[in-house]
Amino acid sequence: MDFDAEDMKKMKYTQYCLNETLRLYPAVPGTSRTLQTPYMLPSHPDTVIPNGTEVVTFFYGAQRNPKYWERSDDFWPERWQNPPKNPYFFTPFSAGERICIGKNLLYDEATILIGTIY
């Protein structure tokens, strides 16, 4: 089957399945950063994490947290019809300024592979 970039944009369910797979099984289960400046926790303004502290983020666990994800352990691609508003809820590529530059390449390659097999 031949298809192009416009066809790939129409493959919404494929995108949902890729997102759900990465939510449940991120390629990188976590990351760490060393604070360059002290950081005040927004939810606890009296708590300050000192400069030089290594902060570890565990994507695997966070993306299965039932506080943020309905049916958190289920493979449920339809959840991506209404994705989370907060970009830090889905972080298999990290988020913000340090988001992985290969994110779009992965989605394009995976979509092409799935479309070719289908």
From TrEMBL:
GO molecular function: heme binding; iron ion binding; monooxygenase activity; oxidoreductase activity, acting on paired donors, with incorporation or reduction of molecular oxygen
Localization, UniProt: Endoplasmic reticulum membrane
Binding site for heme: C100
Required co-factors: heme
Keywords: Endoplasmic reticulum, Heme, Iron, Membrane, Metal-binding, Monooxygenase, Oxidoreductase
Entries under Gene3D superfamilies matching the protein: Cytochrome P450
Chief location bin: endoplasmic reticulum
GO cellular component, one term: endoplasmic reticulum membrane
Domain of life assignment: Eukaryota
One Pfam short name: p450
Listed PANTHER family: CYTOCHROME P450 4C3-RELATED (PTHR24291:SF189), CYTOCHROME P450 FAMILY 4 (PTHR24291)
Family per record: Belongs to the cytochrome P450 family.
Name listed for the protein in its UniProt record: Uncharacterized protein
